[in-house]
Design a protein that fits this description.
Elements lengths: L1 H23 L5 H11 L4 H26 L4 H25 L4 H21 L1 H7 L17 E7 L5 E7 H6 L1 H11 L4 H10 L5 H25 L5 H22 L5 H25 L1
Antiparallel strand pairs: 1-2
Helix pairs in contact: 1-2, 1-11, 2-3, 2-12, 3-8, 3-10, 3-11, 4-8, 4-10, 5-12, 9-10
Length: 288
C-alpha cells in the first residue's frame, strides 16, 4: 500500500511539472510525460499514448482558456490548424493499435529518434530564435517564396502589446494533418513540433506561437483522446486522474510564466529536455 501511495505522489508531481513546462513551450506536456511513463513506469505504448493524449487535452484546454483571456491566440490560424489536424488525430490510434502488437521496442526507438531530431533542429536554429523571439510591432518577411497564400496577422494582447507577422497560411495549415497524426500516434499532442515550426519556418513571435499552438491542441487532442478511449487505450486510475490534477495546476502556472520568461530561454529549455528524453528512449528500445 505504501508503494502505491508513493507512485500516486510521483504521478501528481510529474503532472505538475510537465503541465507547467509543456504549456510554457507550447507543447501541452505530453512530449515529456509520455517518455517518462515509458522509461520509468514501463507501461504499454498504446496505453501511454491514449492516457497521455487525454491528459494533454485536459491540460491544453486549461492553458487555452488562459491564453485566450490574455489575447495572445491567433484564433483564425488555430481554427484552420484544427480542421487539418483532426482527421490525422482520429486515424492514428487505429494505426498504433496494429503497430505495437509486435514491435513495442521499435515504438520507443522511433519516439526517441523523433525527439533527438527535434533537439538538433532547435540547436541549429538558436540564432534565428534570438532574432525573432521578441519582435513586436513590425512586419516580418515571409520565409517562403510563394506569396500567393501569404497572410498578415496583427495580434494585440490584453496588455496592449502588438505583434505583427506574415506567413504562408496554406502551407502552415496543410502540415497540421501530419502533426495531428503524430500527436495521437505517440500521445504527445504535437505542440512540441508545431511551436518550433511556427517560430523558425513561419516567423511567428514566440509568445504567439506558444499560445496558438496550445489553443489548437485543445481541439484536436480531444478528438484523438475520444478515439483512444473507444479503443480502450486510456488508464483512468491512477495515471489519468492523478497526473491530470497536476497537469491542470501546472498548465495555469506555465501560461502565466510565458509573460515573464523570454522567448530564447523557452527554446533552450525545450532543447535540453527533448534531447535527454530522446536518448533515454532509444537506449530503452534497443535493450528491448
Amino acid at each position: 500500500m505504501i508503494e502505491f501511495e508513493w507512485i500516486w505522489l510521483w504521478l501528481v508531481l510529474m503532472g505538475l511539472g510537465t503541465g507547467m513546462y509543456g504549456v510554457l513551450v507550447g507543447a501541452g506536456g505530453g512530449f515529456i510525460l509520455a517518455p517518462l511513463l515509458l522509461i520509468f513506469f514501463h507501461k504499454e505504448p498504446n496505453v501511454v499514448a491514449g492516457t497521455v493524449l487525454a491528459l494533454v487535452a485536459v491540460n491544453s484546454i486549461s492553458g487555452a482558456i488562459t491564453f485566450s483571456r490574455m489575447g495572445l491566440v491567433d484564433k483564425r490560424t488555430s481554427y484552420l490548424f484544427v480542421a487539418a489536424a483532426i482527421p490525422g488525430s482520429v486515424l492514428a490510434p487505429f494505426v498504433l493499435k496494429a503497430f505495437v502488437q509486435g514491435s513495442p521496442g521499435v515504438f520507443h526507438i522511433l519516439f526517441g529518434i523523433m525527439l533527438i531530431l527535434l533537439a538538433i533542429r532547435i540547436l541549429t536554429k538558436q540564432d534565428r530564435t534570438e532574432e525573432i523571439a521578441d519582435r513586436r510591432g513590425e512586419e516580418l518577411t515571409p520565409t517562403r517564396p510563394d506569396t500567393r497564400m501569404v497572410r498578415s496577422r496583427t495580434i494585440i494582447t490584453k496588455k496592449g502589446v502588438t505583434y505583427r507577422y506574415q506567413f504562408n497560411e496554406g502551407f502552415a495549415t496543410a502540415i497540421n494533418f501530419v502533426l495531428g497524426f503524430i500527436s495521437s500516434f505517440f500521445g504527445i499532442g504535437g505542440g512540441f513540433l508545431r511551436t518550433p515550426i511556427l517560430i523558425y519556418t513561419f516567423g511567428f513571435p514566440v509568445q504567439v506561437a506558444v499560445a496558438t499552438s496550445i489553443f489548437t491542441l485543445s481541439f484536436y487532442t480531444t478528438a484523438g483522446a475520444i478515439t483512444h478511449a473507444w479503443l480502450g487505450h486510456i488508464e483512468v486510475f491512477p495515471t489519468f486522474v492523478l497526473a491530470g490534477v497536476g497537469l491542470i495546476v501546472g498548465g495555469q502556472i506555465g501560461a502565466k510564466l510565458t509573460g515573464v520568461i523570454r522567448g530564447p530561454w523557452i527554446m533552450r529549455m525545450l532543447l535540453v529536455v527533448v534531447f535527454v528524453l530522446g536518448i533515454s528512449l532509444v537506449a530503452q528500445g534497443i535493450k528491448g
